[in-house]
Every structure is written in structure tokens, then in C-alpha cells.
């Protein structure tokens, strides 16, 4: 089960899961886009799309129930979806604050609430949180975003500590600077092209380039596989050496 999965890294995770023979549920705002992914996958029997606007948590429980109806169990939950608004503390308006907290924190929290019940009954499960190098304190113009990512790490370690007795593990993957659709849209508004962005990043990231959409996928596949059955409460950085 993926929170997100229709774009960027999330979609590559979806494809990798399908290639492993897994059943996958994913969600997004565009029903047309989601159904197109299902059709083009050639795996419609193993793929479920749920239309969901993460600005509101009202559809979260339905997504959970529909996934269970379709596949009967949830072995792994990947919390990928998120937004990265540009705003310092003094520039943050209340509607922006609410939007980033609703999508980045409230939606994952309440999806975890429901999925944990199923995993407790199964006595097994893996939860993967997508984090950010902003989690420690963040750049000056990513204040609200940094708060959500640090809180997700607290939630991950909370689950790891309190739910291991049910065979549930929880890990936090720090994804570095990546030219996702949201990042490119943001930079375009600032007048920065994708090529200019990559050149800027190459001078900042120790390993000399931004991540691509494939780089974080092997770590996710490890966390949701039986290879990580004794790995919980961990933080894994896939950042090219970048720290903020």
C-alpha cells in the first residue's frame, strides 16, 4: 500500500513492486491518471488505484478499507506523498501551514492508525516513512516542511519501539535532493530550468549529482522485504552525502 505512487519515485516503487509479483494499491488526485497507470501496467489484476485528495483526511479510511477488500491484507505501507512549500517562519501563512501539515503529517498519521490494526492482527508488517535531509532543522525557507519531516521520524521510531511486539517494523528513509515533479514545478516558478537546477545541485551534493527517481527504490524494496525482518527503528540516508 502506497500513500502516493502515481508520480516520480512513488511510481518507480509501484513498478518495482509489480515486477516482484506484489499486489499494490496506490492513490492520487487524478482518477484519469491513476486508471491510465493501471491500464498501462498490464497487471490490472494486481493493482488498485484510489482517488484521494490528501488535503483532507476524510478519504483515508475508505482507501484503507478498499485496499483490504481488494487484497485481504496489507504487508507493507509506504508513506511517500508530500509537498515542499517555500516559506520561512515569518512568511508562512496559516493556509500554507495547514496544507503542508495535512498532506505531510495528518494523512500519513491517520493511514498508519488504520493499517496498524491490520498489521497487529497479522502479527507482521513493514512501514516505510519517506523523510528529508530537512528533518534536522531545514533550510530557512522550508520551516513548516522541516517540522513535518522531523515529526514523521518521531512517529517512525515510536512505532518501531511500541509495535515490534506485534512483528511490525518501521523505518525512515531520508531521500536527498531529487528533481521530482513538485521540485521542478517550484523551480520553474522561480525561473530556474531543470538543467540549471541540476548544475546547481552538482556543486552542492558531495557525490556530484542530484538523485534520480530510481536511486531510493532499492532501499524501499529492502525495507518491505523479508531481508529486513530484524531491521526496525532505523534511519537510512540516500542523499549523495548531502546534509542540511
Observed structural traits:
8 helices; 244 residues; two-stranded parallel ribbon; alpha/beta
Question: How would you explain this protein's 3D organization?
Answer:
Helix content is 45%, strand content 15%. It has eight helices and seven strands, in the order βαβαβαβαβαβαααβ. The chain has helices at 8-19, 31-41, 60-71, 94-122, 143-163, 181-189, 194-202, 217-224; strands at residues 2-3, 24-28, 47-51, 76-79, 125-132, 168-175, 235-238. It has a five-stranded parallel β-sheet with strand order 1-4-5-6-7, with helices on both faces. A two-stranded parallel ribbon has the order 2-3. The model has no long low-confidence stretch (mean pLDDT 95).
Largest sheet: 5 strands, parallel
- Oligomeric category: single chain
Q: Order of strands side by side in the largest beta sheet? A: 1-4-5-6-7
C-alpha Rg, in Å?
A: 17 Å
CATH topology: Rossmann fold
Order of helices and strands: EHEHEHEHEHEHHHE
Q: Using the coordinates above, name the CATH class.
A: Alpha Beta
**Average pLDDT taken over every residue:** 95
CATH architecture type:
3-Layer(aba) Sandwich
Chain-wise SSE layout:
Elements: E1 2-3, H1 8-19, E2 24-28, H2 31-41, E3 47-51, H3 60-71, E4 76-79, H4 94-122, E5 125-132, H5 143-163, E6 168-175, H6 181-189, H7 194-202, H8 217-224, E7 235-238
Parallel strand pairs: 1-4, 2-3, 4-5, 5-6, 6-7
What is the gist of this entry?
The protein is α/β, with parallel strands linked by helices.
Amino acid at each position: 500500500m502506497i500513500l502516493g505512487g502515481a508520480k516520480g519515485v512513488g511510481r518507480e516503487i509501484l513498478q518495482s513492486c509489480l515486477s516482484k509479483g506484489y499486489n499494490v494499491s496506490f492513490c492520487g488526485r487524478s482518477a484519469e491518471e491513476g486508471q491510465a497507470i493501471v491500464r498501462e501496467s498490464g497487471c490490472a489484476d494486481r493493482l488498485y488505484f484510489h482517488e484521494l485528495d490528501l488535503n483532507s483526511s476524510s478519504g483515508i479510511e475508505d482507501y484503507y478499507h478498499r485496499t483490504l477488500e481488494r487484497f485481504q491484507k496489507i504487508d507493507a505501507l509506504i508513506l511517500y506523498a508530500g509537498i515542499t512549500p517555500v516559506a520561512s517562519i515569518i512568511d508562512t501563512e496559516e493556509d500554507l501551514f495547514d496544507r503542508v501539515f495535512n498532506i505531510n503529517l495528518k494523512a500519513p498519521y491517520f493511514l498508519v492508525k488504520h493499517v496498524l490494526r491490520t498489521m497487529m492482527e497479522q502479527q507482521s508488517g513493514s512501514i516505510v516513512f519517506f523523510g528529508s535531509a530537512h528533518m534536522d532543522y531545514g533550510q530557512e525557507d522550508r520551516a513548516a516542511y522541516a517540522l513535518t519531516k522531523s515529526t514523521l521520524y518521531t512517529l517512525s521510531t515510536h512505532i518501531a519501539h511500541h509495535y515490534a511486539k506485534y512483528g511490525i517494523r518501521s523505518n525512515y528513509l531520508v531521500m536527498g535532493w531529487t528533481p521530482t515533479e513538485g521540485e521542478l514545478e517550484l523551480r520553474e516558478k522561480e525561473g530556474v530550468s531543470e538543467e540549471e537546477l541540476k548544475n546547481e545541485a552538482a556543486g552542492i551534493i558531495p557525490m556530484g549529482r542530484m538523485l534520480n527517481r530510481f536511486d531510493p527504490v532499492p532501499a524501499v524494496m529492502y525495507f518491505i522485504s523479508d531481508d529486513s525482518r530484524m531491521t526496525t527503528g532505523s534511519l537510512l540516508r540516500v542523499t549523495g552525502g548531502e546534509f542540511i
